[in-house]
Design a protein that fits this description.
alpha+beta; 5-stranded antiparallel beta sheet; 9 helices; globular; disordered N terminus
Amino acid sequence: MKKKRRKRRKRIGCLGISFLFLFAIIFAGVCILPWVKNLKKISISYDAKALLLTNRSNGEVFLSKREEEPELPASLAKLFVVEYAAEIAAPDAIVSANWEAISMTKQGSSVAWIQEREYFLHNLFAAMLVPSGNDAAYVVADYCGGILSPQSGTTQERIQVFMNCLNTHLQEKGYKDTVLYDPSGFDQEAATTASDLAAVTERLLEYKWFRDMVSQNVYTATLPDGSTVNWQNTNDFLNPSSEYYNENVLGIKTGSMSDNYSLIVLYQQHGKEFLICSLGSKSDASRYEDVIHILKTIDESNYLSR
């Protein structure tokens, strides 16, 4: 009798293992294979140099491509500048924009048409983030450099102090693959990665004012004297008159230099937020088309909808 009982137990154990094996196959078919299929679809359609897609609800990396490889930041460098400047001074500080700083703007730059007048610091942040004003970036660097080094006598000295301290800050914050030489990002020697850009964007998203700025197609800034300035966002995903308009896109920033066109997007779907850092597309149009493939993958993913 004892022997028969043992055999019965052994048989049940084998059936249990078989059941678990069958369950694993079904789980793979239902959950994993569609995910792999999405990856194959992306590899065919996505053509930019680097990519990082994270699910902000749990920090999970869903898709990545060369996310640790150095790329030109271009105007995305402004994200690091704003993050550091917000630690140095209060956003409601009043800044006097001087001509020496404004005149450092290079030919061919995107501008916010900053004038010699007073701005709140957060006005200048918006000027950097929405129309991607390089002129505003120099004014911010000049102002913050003066805080860091009150003895510096010229705009050039103050901006150099700011950039030196910024690069130290980048290393201390863990942006280990980012180095910047110009506050506007108009620089062929600078470098960053999709991973570092995702990290700085996550920090900036903690600020309500940042979310408000980068999510609007047209941003209205109220200056210290009560006057207002309107800035048009460079992100066509936010523009209702653009073919790329998408109501689920919540911002954040474009960047381009030479033949590198980049885009960071905050996307809302499945009751969650997704952060997409896409770097190095071949043209202005293709940077949107590349990201559209990522958005479709999110929309159609059963895995991400859970």
